[in-house]
Queue: 4 jobs
Job 1
Amino acid sequence: MTTTFDRHTWCLETLPAFVGGTLPPHDSAAVLAHADECAQCRAELGFARRVHGHFDREWSSVAPLLDAEREQAGFDQLWSRISADEVVSPAARRRVPQLVLSLTALAATIGLGVGLLWYQNAAAPDYHTLADSPPRVCGQLRVQVGQQRPAADIVRLLESAGTQVVDGPSAEGVYTLRAANAAESLRRLRALPDVRLAEPTDC
Amino acid sequence: MWNAPRVGTKPDSPPFDAELRTLLRKVADRDRTAFRALYHALRPVLARHLFRVVGRADHVDELLNDVMWVVWQNAGNFRGDAQVTTWVLGIATLKGQRARQRWHREQAFFDRPQVVEVEMPAPAETDHDIEGGLAQLSSEHRDTLELTYYFGYSCAEVAQLTGCPVGTVKTRLYHARRRLKQVLEESIRLGEAS
């Protein structure tokens, strides 16, 4: 037997498919019937229709560009360009060994320079690691939690450090977090025993 | 997948990331048939993205071909640590921004109006609140909303399409909806205050 609660939850979860037009007719009718008597689902339906309407307008604006003949003409033009580019002239072929030689010489020079710098730095007494510098924080953090825990526990753990989960977990179990005070949250996250890795995202 | 029939103005369903990767690998081996399939699969999403970036339709075809030319040249360099569409749209964004800057310079120099050759439909009334809210979302969050609310996919299907776990899709959907609703509520409050 389907309870009222079940129907309500089902309706909320089904609304995107309903406005997306992928729901069978009898399910669509059930969504409309429930939304008629449920204020929350009615509001959600209004929201879903607005979001769908926005994307529909966006796609309509480029509909003329998606014509099949236009696409074929575009591809033919591109393929002609690719074919023309791939006809390598004999002069260009003769230039290749010279280019390879120049690049090899350049790589050797850079390698020598890097090696010299490394040797000088290794001998220097006041060596600083990158870890001594303050972390570059741009508002988002990436965190990996070591132990196997339920997702809800992990989210609670991460939020206890003043963060909000905005993405994840990835296949590797990495979460992306947003923090009002990223530097402070980073410090608190790194102090948590279960946190295996906590790093600011690239700026 | 990319040969699904068109319904109304709705374009073909977006292709699975795994299928795009397979095509891209073949393109790296200079497979013309695979490149044609990739071109067909990416064209709708690229056309719309470029139109969004440059704001004019007359050069979308040309820019789209510039992007796909880069894809042909660099298919072998795709490292696979992002979705194929993310990689391609990144190239498109760069191409579109450069073109826009060039047009602005040319327009300023010659002081002439832009010419729009393609006949486009009159723009429908825009829902500025939704548009503003979506602009504040990350591309992953926006794409998740689009795949569920426009294409009507379930979370499991979106996970398959984007090549990420179902849990991630649910998290993205939750935060995207929450942020969007916050923006809409703020807009209503501001409207009432004024």
Job 2
Amino acid sequence: MPPALAGRLSRFLVGCYPRRWRERYAEEMLEVLGQHRPTARTVLNLWASALGSHLDPAYRMEGRSMIRRHKKWLVGAAAVSAVPMVLLLLVSIAAWQENLGNNGPPLPLSQGVFGVAFSPDGRTVAVINPSLEMWSVADPAHPRRLGYSKGDIVTGADPAFSPDGRVLATAGQQNVILWNVTDPVPRPTQIAVLSASPSFVNAVLFSPDGSILASGYADGTMVLWNTADPAHVTRIATLARQAGGVSALSFSPDGCLLASASADGTVVLRNTADPAHVTRIATLARQAGGVSALSFSPDGRLLASASADGTVVLRNTADPAAPVITATGRFPAWPPPQPGAGLLPGAALAFSASGHTLTAIAGSSTVTVWNVTGTGGLARVTTITTDSIGSGPVAFSSGGHAVAGAPATGDTLALWTLP
Amino acid sequence: MGVHSKFDGLGRFADPSLLILTSLADGPRHGYAIMTDVAAFSGISMEPGTLYGALSRLERRGWVRPLATEERRRPYEITAAGQEVLAEQVKTMQQIVRVARLRTANASAWGA
């Protein structure tokens, strides 16, 4: 059974569980399925398990008469047994459904998309799906797969290119893998595996001169690596844990400041001028939702942070010890803001090369563009909505000219060039 | 991923609940982490359907407890009751292993 079909059937079967089950487990099961490589065995196993849950009294409605309960069971069993029929239907849909209508054909990917990044020159896209695939998007209308890695990376984080575009860092489950991507045909080659923390790698980022790689972990640890020679990487420093786990990173253009965001809504600024002696400069006031994307402006004077409540906050960091909020903007965020911490599954921010515009996308199919005034004000220019990008991973090319994004459970990646 | 051997077939003897409790014994893990951990320490690849079927039963018995979701992944934690059950299970299994060892050793001694 092709993996794409197995994935589709698996996700469909999750919808066949009783309602009470779905309310409790569907979201995390879909997440697990996204990480798992589904096979025919997965589909069969889910089918049996869904059927079993319909027979489980705990997931039938309470306080109903026997006949009604019986009826409920029959309906449930019939729904699950309809699978073989629906299977046929899905096969035909899978064969037919291809295009989502964008300004470049979507990249057909065998599995869901876990992470995505543009090379610094914007001509290549790295996709984790969950192996590493390298695509040439030099001609956005005709994307071309250059090569892919053997073995899966299995991660929910975006990879990061070195500034010269020669090395790619991917966030594995508990380690960072460095790849030589100078010639990804037919495969990018693995240079090094960096292990530092037992927890998930949530974010990786190279410093602007490429000499440092920062990795942020789900347990809040952050590690700086000396990547001056990617073949001989050494650990420079392990930084104090940040509550809530590291969710996003940004270096200032001069590499002297490192901003790290957390799911609890805080952003920490550190002085990285001497990477061996990093000091914490400031912890910025908490945003209502988890901070999912961060970006310094090209002149390093502004820091933008996007949080899960659909807010982008712009701060003047000219004095990093006392950053001042200069503006806040709203953008459509999905899922809708909920009380408590949380992160947007797919969020990205990009300043234009001139620093005059800021573009944001966060867990939805809408890209929002603002003008940035000289004093750090925000004026919304436009919003662009595209159905082919959903709540899945998303990335801007440097300068924000192009966006690559995927629907949450889709197996395609859409490319858009922004006006 | 994981250690697969010619004894993969033994998976049917392994109770998913026991594997999950063992996986959670040294700290909370979310669904996919449980699957990879179980595969790593036992060589048994558990499918998501089996995993969540067992997790829901364990949760209802109060042997595991769901924690707050982190980025759509929900970690699970073993409860004090779960630890007790696991310890008891391990004791029983040790007894079985002891007897099995003794008897297979005797059998081969007689065979020789």
Job 3
Amino acid sequence: MPYLGAFEQLILFSVLQLKDEAYGASLREDIEERTGRTVSIGAIYTTLGRLEERGLVRSRTEEPRGRTGRPRKYYALTPDGARELREAYASIQAVAGGVVSELDRLAES
Amino acid sequence: MASDPRDAPHPPRLPRLLVRLLIRGRDASYIVSDLDTSFARDVERGIGRARAARRYAWNALASVWSVWTSGLRRLVTHGIGLDAKLGLRMLVKQPLITAVTVLALGLGIPASLLFLHGMDVLFSDLPVPDGHRVVGVRHYDVDGQNPLSSSMHDLERWQALESLESIGAVRSSSVNIDTEESGAPPVRSAEITASSFDILRARPLLGRVLDADDELDGAPAVALLGESLWSARFARDPGIVGQSIRIGRTPHTVVGVMPADFQFPSSDQVWLPLRARAVDSPVGDGPQVMVFGRLADGVSLQDARAEISVLTERRASDDPERFEHLTGEVVGMATLLLNEDAENSSLWSNPELLIVQALIFGLLLVVCGNVGTLILARTAARSNEITIRTALGASRARILTQLFVETLVLATVATGLGLLLANRFASWLMGVLAPHDFLPYWADLTLTPRFVGIALGLAALCAAVAGVLPALSPTRRAIQANLQRTGVRSGGTRFGIGSSVLIVSQIILSVGVLALGATGVRTAFAYQGDDLGFDPDRYVYATLTVPEPRPMEVQGASDSLAWQTHLEEIQRELLRRLSEDPAVVGVAMGAHVPGLSSPNGDVILETPPAGFDPVESDVAVARVDVSFFAGLGRPILAGRDFNAGDAEGPPGTPHTAVIVNESFVRHHFGGRSAVGQRFRYEPPVPAWRALDEEEWYEIVGVVGSFGTNPENSARDAAIYHPLAPGAINPARFTVEVAGDPEAFVPRLRQIAASVDPVATVSTGLLAATIRTESLMFRSTFLLVLALAGAAFLLAATGLYALMSFTISQRTQEIGIRSALGASTADIVSAVTRRAALQVGAGLALGIAWGWVLLDNSRNDVEVGNIPLTLALTAAIAGSVCLAACAHPTLRGLRIQPTEALRES
């Protein structure tokens, strides 16, 4: 099983945060607000497409409402996705455990 | 939340258009929509329209980048791997397509690059450190359109060039080394300036290279030997340095041995100091040399060219008469040594060469078209698979990628095998050519990484042409329509007019060329060596070259005349001594040797015989010494032999008496008496043939036909012109020997060296040389035959593909016809109509084209009965076409109505 990359973890956490409102534009905004990173809509979609193929997220589409409405594709974590994200986060925590203060000290020195 | 989209501000148009154009696939509309939403939110947040637009543009371009790179990555990691596996499986499952493709592309791709490779090899840098910085310097005659040799005066002048860190000169010739004692063959030698070794960064294997003191007048005579000569003639004697060897008349001290890879400038094995000086000859005169140098640090080729242009322009203003029509050139070393125009050294600098290469690639496209025909048949047969894959969600691009990769696997395997074969062939060819010095010493024919890279690139291109183009149409059809057709095998894929034109034109081409190739091979193999009128196994021939005197040795017209007399004496003396040797049966001198090819000319008779239509043909034209026929014991059948008076007179005197052979009399006079008749040559006669196109020549005698045209004994008419003594240099001697000619060769060289140790003699065994020429002649026609055969095979394969495809498409129709009581003839007629039309048209036009081809080749091959040849060729070609159609047609005839119904 391929591991979750940092960007994939970011997106999955963001999908979790946004609950039923997780689609391209909202995910981009959320990630930008929380991390200060500017990411492209295209990068979000290609990553989510990959995660969907692996069964870690599922999507539903909403057709445009009215003449000028916009189509949207909403994403949500699957149980497999949740498990993998939890494992990935746990791994980070396990490795980082007890050294975060040291990390802060080093970074600020 | 986003506001109502109807009120949303519009994002910048250009990035949005790019996104809509470049992002495809199922998520495209969501990406576009989300980009718009992001833009609208940025505006809502009040960051300003301009900044929002910039953020949109970045977001849009970054999205395009992400989608494309992700798509490519997926293609490489998932799709192509699987497609490649499928492609490999197809190689085994479809051996016919594999075999034809391997044959066509495996031979076609390397063959299409041979011209380019030849240019690369010939004009490559010299194999010396930083070889690309060693350059030639010369004048180019703008009026005459040819590069000029240089003089020592030029060398002196060019020493002022600051673009070159050093400059040198070299001139090549051949020398005898102890030949009078050993009878050893002459050796290629170069007179070279000491500076050259520094320019070429050349280091000796033993001893030292030449130095500046060796060039001084009065310095001891020294020589530098090549490793090959040192091995062959001196058994790698470690004490060779300091030993004395005799070169021509003069003893030379060996000062060193150069390593085997140093053969500068033209496979030379002996290097002597160049002692010519500018002061020894008038300006523009003196020994001809090649001048070269090494570019100074930081100087580019363009800098050097600019400097020499300025220098030459300055000279032209000082001395317009001599220099006005000249330009100064700095060229690659290979260009200088091969004496080629600079523009011919690269495809990119010569449009004509580029056109040749483009035509060759055009032929490769035809080959690709053939492979494409087969692939189309395969694609059509797989239309159901393609339709189902499309229905399951595969995009058209995905399907085309699959077909491309499958064909790419096939093309790559074919090209790989072709490259292996080409490399083996190149190694073999180098082994064959090396002993004869047919190639410059720096030329390495084996394949370069560039060659392999271009070949693989062409394989990809061919895969696109053969695999993707034919599939564009079948994959364009709507899924629904194809799904409806699935199962009834009536998919709309068709062989278009393009494939018909391809098949017909190949049949035309191959019938004509097959006929010519077969005729040529028949002519070439008919020759068994007994058509020459004499036995070449008894003959050896020798080419005697008397080196011209140095300019300082010729002081005026009287010395020039003395040299001419000297040349004549040497030739006469060699003729005399050879004729007196007990091993020699007969000897003759001339510009040509019987049995070997000679120049041709078209003749116009003064009074053609009434009622006889002379056979229009080229006639071999030989220039021979007046004692030629007597020397070789050839009797004069009518008229008289040459006498000394026929060739006498000062230079320029017309010598109008000629002797012709029996074939000439038969072809031009129908066998009637030719003695006393006159003719002249049809202009233009090239200057090198040394014939006067204005002059009327009179036939004074007739000799039996012998050794004029070994390739075609039916076309062996010949004219012999008398040669003034000393008129040619080199002169060729034909010697009939009582015993083994090969054993006589060293003796011949010894005799020649005893006449003049400076004159060099190259020898050959006549029978062996005729065999080589004959082999080349045969190989040419075998190659023509093989190429025609290959083209024909491709055409036949195209027909097979067409028929197989037709039968599989019309299974249901054949079944119904069969059920309705159609006869075998009806069914055959229905399914073979198109193929029959193609074959018929191809054969008919092929016969016409073959007729033209054969009729125009009468002088090269013994064409015989043209209608019969063409009828046989067409019959064979027709049979093969029939065989190609037979198997699929029989399959069609075996279709039962029940089978057809089951299929539907």
Job 4
Amino acid sequence: MKLNRRNAIAVGASALVVVGGYEAFRLLRPHYPPTPYDDLLDRLSDRDAARQLGAAFLRTHPDFTPGAAARVLRRKVGTRDLSATVEDEAAHGELTEAGRWIIPQTLAGLCALAART
Amino acid sequence: MNFIDARQVPSGTELTPDLAIIGGGPAGISLALALARTRIRMLLLESGGMDFDAATQALCQGDETGVRYIPLDATRLRYLGGCSNHWGGWSRPLDEIDFEKRDWLPWSGWPFPRNELEPFYPRAQQLIEAGSFLYDNLAKGELPGSLLPLGPGGLYNSFFQFSQWRGNAEHLPTAFGHRYANDLKQIPNLQLMLHANVTGLRLAKDVRWVDHLDVATLSGVKFTVKPRHTVVACGGIENARLLLASKDVMTAGVGNQNDVVGRFFADHAIPRETATLVVFGGEIAGFYKTNLNARGAHFRAALSPTDRFRRERHLLGSLPTVEEHVQLDLLGKAAVATTSAALGVDASSAHAYSLGTGIELAPDPERRLILTSARDALGMPRLKLNMTISNREFDDYRETLIELGRQLLAAKSGMLRLDRRSRAEWLSVMDWGNHHMGTTRMHDDPKQGVVDTNSQVHGLANLFIAGSSVFPTYGASNPTLNLVALTLRLAEHLKGVLR
């Protein structure tokens, strides 16, 4: 392709669209203040929904301590895929209730962390 | 031969059949049909007529204490066909575990295993008109829709079948009275008498034999039936009442020398809206929500605990079924979005449903019928029911639901919310099945049962009881198919006894 004026404009416009799209996505997606648990919370696809579920969990678990819970969660999840962890927990009956919903313990912990931050 | 109206029988008459069958419900009618064209001369005595009559129905009135239950004159029907005149047609054989004696369930166990009833199920299935005998085998063949995926564990996709009155335009379940009236009229060795109320089982002086039956009509006629053998088949409440009220020779009542008659009353607790089931992948197959026809059966799916799971966890039976589609609240939507995303599955078309269930009650001698001083229009003592349900029943079912929730997550197919926790919550949504069982329970030991393994009342050579009142442990399955099968087994026994 010759680098004539027309092509230069086209390349420039495309680049603007890509960069603009990325920036728009970055600006429009929910932003949360940094927390000490972002390595864990980033595993949640929708932190607002998780917060609601976490708040329900906390109503029946008032002794929940974020720091201690985070240590346990890091041990459990580590670098593993979240889906593999919760699948394992379902298979082994490591479940709990949040707002009467039966959910895997790790997910409940992540949601509770989200609700506390 | 047309049915006889007992009101036309002259007072003082004495009838002498080989076999008197007291009660024209599913048990009494099945027994008469099974003994058709034998040499046994049968007389079937039905309290009501062909249709509902308020004065006759009022004979069923009684009192209640304890947990709220259905009024005694509303939980059954007193005319030919009995309770089959208002049943829903839900049918399912009992599970093997229901017959087992379980150390963790006091008073449990039948005197024989399920395979003793197996030969009688096919004919019972024909009589209730529930199509091919498939039940859980439906899961093995082609179905009009997909089974709900469940991870390995304690529950499985199981099936009810439904009675469907063949040739009836309204597709009602089989109402035995109207359905089999013509068949009964064709039986040469049967006389069927309507409006004939048996008010007493009168024993011989040696207390080993029923000598005769007192019969009365609401119009004032009184006469006597002196049969060689008698089968009481008036239903799980009235069977006990008749035995308890017949106390001129045995002062505690016939067959009640060990104070067992009327105890162990049971029904199926049917709490509604017990849980919310979410299916991630969209709508659940139609046969979970309603009855469908396929492969020669009219069926509906349930989610049953396996025998193995119940043995391991020491659980009573239950049969959760889908009730109706429900809308999730904000928390529910958050739970589904968060959980499905964590599992890596798409739940954008998820559907939610409420779950109801039938729950087996644990045998309880204090859940019982006793006579009161009040009398009905025929002078029979009325009953009082003390109804109980312990927290164990709710706890067992809750544990079953938790396992279902686990299996849904393990299969990544859905999730579950437990909608009832406290006893008050459970009781607030409680319904009952009108499945009266246990009051003349079967046990080889006369101290623990009223009838023996052949349904013969302990100590009385010519008195038998048919129906679900002899069930010593109940299971979660609806009783009609099972009590008809058990009655057919009794018919085989009587053929030998009356030879």
